[in-house]
Amino acid sequence: MKELKADLVIIGGSLGGCAAAMSALENGLEVILTEETDWIGGQITSQGVPPDEHPWIEMFGSTRRYRRFRNDVRDFYATYYPLAGPRGEEFNPGNALVSKIAHEPKVALAVLEHRLAPYLHSGKLKLLLNTEAVKVETKGDEIEAVEVVTKEGKKVVLTAPYFIDATDEGSLLPLAGVEYTIGRESQGETGERHAAPGASDPMDMQAFTYCFAMDYLPNEDHTIEKPEQYDFWREYQAPFWPDKQLSWAGVVPHTLEPLVYDFFPSSNRFNLWTYRRIIDKSQFAPGLYESDLTVVNWPQNDYWLGPIIDVSPEEREKHLHASKQLSLSLLYWMQTEAPRPDGGVGYPGLRLRKDVFDTEDGLAKAPYIRESRRIKALFTILEKHVNTEDRQGEPIRFPDSVGVGSYRVDLHPTTGLRHYVDFSSVPFEIPLGAFLPIRVKNLIPACKNIGTTHITNGCYRLHPVEWNIGEVAGLFLNFCLQESLTPHEVYENREHLEEFQRFLDKEGVQRSWPRIHPV
């Protein structure tokens, strides 16, 4: 069996995994990075979700490397795409409602690959695509090796002093015997006001979504074949939802007040077309795009009828398939039955853009995962640390802060058929204690798998925060190797911790907020 060695093994090419690889490589480490699909980038590429960011992202509130990534995206368009006019400093390719830099997944992929290319060519980075971790060898409280298998069935053993779990589902944790939690905690466990009363429920997790991209050619017919589960989804209505799921109905997440969406911009109501639009064709040279291009990641294709984490392979496959059927059924409904403002029904000119993700069914390469396995950490981030009401508008200052983020606590409906939980949070810090498992010494997380709860995961899961977590994971293990210290030794010793924080400052990691208003 082939064996590969490095200073650092990163399992999972998510957005956090890519950030971890970059920060480690740029500081001299040799890295092995694995990814289950054939695209690195996770939620911003293979899952198809444009960046969700806070209002101040253009000025502050992220790492220097994340700002560089955003600039690289804009430069990519300015360099290779014929634009309708000069590229402004805050150029937003999609002019989306949800993002200041909504863009095509393949552009994000190209930017990430460009940044990693020198290290691939020099041999400092070994990138194993279409590769899944299947077995972990441990000794005491440490991981010794991870066995991975490629799509072709070839097995490889990966060894290093340190390992990072950068998978979107925390997939390395159970293989390595790392203590973790999933699903919903009870109020009795965490004391969180928005935690559910009664017992905890590990199987009660946020909905996941199979995104897809589409454009609109009104004089053409691109109606897909009727999905096999269409009749079910056409009639389905959750007990908490104001109408059938295949409708223009929704709710205001923080009040649960029913509302009706517009499809295209036509009134003062919220419209779905520009919600996650990734190309606004008016910004590009005439004729380059036939239509705007939008990503469908809406309440209508959130899948909450069952979890895919810690269930049998058969149960997992059933829910993955049903989620794909929901997304395809939503498209078919929009093409054939969706009510139009003119009194007609259906938009047959909606075209499923299979080329956006290069998949046979046209859906994203992987489901958008909102909630992962979460390590049982030395420090767990609770609602009281972020809730604007609990904090009386004042951000908490963590002495071990290694980054910042800002996003509302935004929990989508869950597999326990519970409604949205959505409330204001203060701009928050990311504590190093949430990176450290309670027992295992040489593994740390780099995504949504840090020490949060079901509640606080809702604001620590978006793009700039995941990037920050991943980047710091790479920098942290670089620091440990350079100083011959373990992660726990750094955390537990004030002088070591402060030295590491000074290193983060030099690397451009913002660790605290100026005085600003909560979101």
CATH topology of the largest domain: FAD/NAD(P)-binding domain
CATH class call of the largest domain: Alpha Beta
Straight-line distance between termini? 52 Å
* Number of separate structural domains: 2
Strand order of the largest sheet: 4-3-2-8-23
Unreliable segments of 5+ consecutive residues: none
- What percentage of amino acids are in beta strands? 15-25%
Summarize the amount of helix as a percent range. Answer: 10-25%
Write the layout of secondary structure elements.
Elements: E1 2-5, E2 8-11, H1 15-25, E3 31-34, H2 64-80, H3 105-122, E4 125-128, E5 131-139, E6 142-150, E7 155-159, E8 162-165, H4 172-176, E9 180-181, H5 187-190, E10 208-209, E11 212-216, H6 230-235, E12 249-251, E13 258-260, E14 277-279, E15 293-296, E16 302-303, H7 313-336, E17 350-352, E18 374-375, H8 388-391, E19 401-405, E20 409-411, E21 421-423, E22 428-431, E23 443-445, H9 463-483, H10 487-492, H11 494-506
Parallel strand pairs: 1-7, 2-3, 2-8, 3-4, 8-23
Antiparallel strand pairs: 5-6, 6-7, 9-18, 10-16, 11-15, 11-17, 12-13, 14-15, 19-22, 20-21
Structure explained in plain terms:
The chain is α/β, with parallel strands linked by helices and 519 residues long. It folds into two domains: 2-184 and 370-506, FAD/NAD(P)-binding domain (3-Layer(bba) Sandwich), CATH 3.50.50.60; 208-356, no CATH class. The chain contains eleven helices and 23 strands.
Task: Write a brief caption for the model.
By secondary structure, the protein is of the alpha/beta class.
